[in-house]
Amino acid sequence: MTIPSSARRQKYLGDKGLVALITFLSAFVPLSTDLYLPALPGMALYFGVSADLANLTLILFFVFFGAGTLFWGPLSDRYGRRPVLLAALSIYTAASLGCALSGDIHQLIAFRIFQAVGASGAFAVATAMVKDVYESKRREPILAMVQSMVLISPVAAPVLGAILLRFVSWRGAFWALALIGLLALLGGLALVETIGERSGGSLLGALGRIFRVAKNPGFSTLLLLFSLPGISSMAFIAASSYIYINGFGVSPQVYSYYFAANAVGMISGPMIYMRVSRRLRRRSIIAASFGAIAGSGLLISIFGERAPWLLAAALLPATISASLVRTPATNLMLEQQRGDTGSAAALMSFFGIFAGSLGMTVISLDWTDPIPVLGMMNLLVGLASGGLWLLIGNKSYVVAVPERYLPRGSARR
């Protein structure tokens, strides 16, 4: 793997260490949610609250995570990636300790909000660093590798969380997250600044650059389109423990295996894309992926209620396809912007999380059976995304990136 000069200047981390840190920071969302998913039903019983109220620890995390990226991303363009990263990780680590020590559900929800704000800074900086360090031709393989490594955490985290529950209470999951935050903070201290040219102006001016990026029609159109799969993907994450543990009656340990088996599809998605993209056009791959999500929705609606393994199998095409699309989608959106990478990364994260929070809210309503709802959500998301892609797939900003938005020194694809 050819590492550019900006990566070679990492005195302490080195080239592989930089990729490892970017991967670790990018994994903060699944680590911060999936690790304690097996404990959610038991947590509701511990505090004596409804499942809806316990689910706010998950839903509000994503809401404030998305909002937080809008703050941290522009700040990292103005003040640099490293200081923003250190501040965000300090908040995350302290909030994780607060979660572990919470005395009631309301305290836990409050600390989860602060935890989300800290995690959003780590994630926004990680995405921006990919653009800082790697030029267009090298970015897609790096994105695929990072996203595949990141997606290991949804496999490992629920299993680890279920194992922790055998020895400690739900608080143990948050002690583990505090340790993860501390390790990431040590990595941030070793980081050498990656941004080449910082934006000028005041703090308010830096935050206002969000609107400048949003006015880029190519970026904003793709942003809207590629945020849609997050609706159905995050709906499953919010409902999975209740569906498997309360609905099918499996143990938390068995649930973690079903969740991990489906998450294997997430890991394989980016690597499948890199292989298939050698033979097929990017536009065709994306269109086929949206079709697979719709087809998966039909399978869930027909077979999902019959057995837990049938639900996992029916969901697998949607899981793989949503993961597969992320690599070309991220690169396509990053290619639309010449500067303000942190702001672009912030908007990408915010809209993805907003869509996910919408799906989690819908699936958390008082449904008699959430499985048909999950199936319908995948069907509608697949059809809507596929229809929009057919409308814009031949546009100039998809086929060829506009010159005024190209990063300096990069070539037209």
TrEMBL record:
UniProt keyword Cytoplasm present: no
Ranges that cross the membrane: 12-33, 53-72, 84-103, 109-130, 142-167, 173-192, 222-243, 255-273, 285-303, 309-325, 345-365, 371-392
GO cellular component term of the entry, any: plasma membrane
Entries under SUPFAM superfamilies matching the protein: MFS general substrate transporter
Keyword vocabulary terms for this entry: Cell membrane, Membrane, Transmembrane, Transmembrane helix, Transport
GO molecular function annotations of the record: xenobiotic transmembrane transporter activity
Cellular location(s): Cell membrane
UniProt entry tagged with the keyword Hydrolase: no
Membrane topology (UniProt): Multi-pass membrane protein
Predominant cellular place of this UniProt entry's protein: membrane
One Pfam assignment: MFS_1
Domain Major facilitator superfamily (MFS) profile, chain residue ranges per copy: 18-396
Biological process per Gene Ontology, one example term: xenobiotic detoxification by transmembrane export across the plasma membrane
Protein family according to the UniProt entry: Belongs to the major facilitator superfamily. Bcr/CmlA family.
Protein name: Drug resistance transporter, Bcr/CflA subfamily
